[in-house]
Amino acid sequence: MAFVPRKSWFGFAVCLLTGSGCAQADGRNPDAWDVDSESSSWGPPADPSAGTTAPGTTVAPPVDDSSESGEPTPPTPTPDVPQQTCPRVRITIMPGNALNVRAEPSTASDEVGELTNNAVVDVVSSTTGELVEGEDLWFEIVDGALHGYVTAAYAECTFDEPPELLPPAGFYLPLECGTTTTIAQGNDGGFSHQGNAFFAYDFSVGLNTPLVAMADGIVIHTYAETMPGDPCYDGGPDDCFAFGNLVVLLHGDGSTSLYKHLNAVWTFDGDFVPQGSPVGLSGSTGYSTGPHAHVMRMEDCGVAQCQSIPLEFVEAGVPEIYDSVTSENCPK
What we know:
The protein is mostly beta strands. It has one helix at about 10-20; strands at about 1-5, 35, 90, 100, 110-115, 120-130, 135-145, 145-150, 155-160, 180-185, 200-205, 210, 215-225, 245-250, 255-260, 265, 270-275, 280, 295-300, 310, 325.
């Protein structure tokens, strides 16, 4: 089992806890490291024909399981036993990490690919292998050209189909379900919400507040390079604009949504992020005067920051500055 921590203090803490090194200039480790695991040994099953026959015991002749035509008689199916009890698995790891897919059911075998949190992939078979987090079950999976094994410690059986990106019924506040806060700057804000950011919202939240997807989306842009000690980490003037950590999601209606000034980015390009699932933690990176959540709905122009478009929240409508709002963005 392996994680690929994103560039953040969160990832640094994980490294300290596990004792694994994560140092790299941009905070990412391309060779995803493995969680410590307990190896369990196993061998081939015992040969049922082995052993001796007690003296005086009569051995029955072999049973003829052929039909009159000479063909073997097919076995009688066991009733009420599902033919496929685990058609797919869903990856269940910490957001912002990736699970290594292995060539064999062991963390010592070659890495053949990675799967991110919430990925749903087809199961070919299951088997036992190396013990990981107390679990020796491994799934043989296939996802397009990717074929290998994942540990059941971070994968659960599901009958769900792989997620399909559909037009959203609406957009929810970008805060965890039940969170209440106020609007620090709304549409056409006098400080910075003009031009491309005309329809943006700033939410008054503290440092490291989880931000969640306003609707189902696929990650199409991320920036996670601004770190503690960098000139624009704690905010700065407009020349820090390009250094705000961010995530951009593409939605099923063709629009996108931007989550900016993040202190930690918890997604990878290509991830499917369900509505209500986290994309990162709030911060003050880039052109900012203090910790807050900056979000907006945008056109898809091919780059990370495009023209904003009107955004009305399901539970709050179009809030204005100083309005209090409470999120109903509860995971499905």
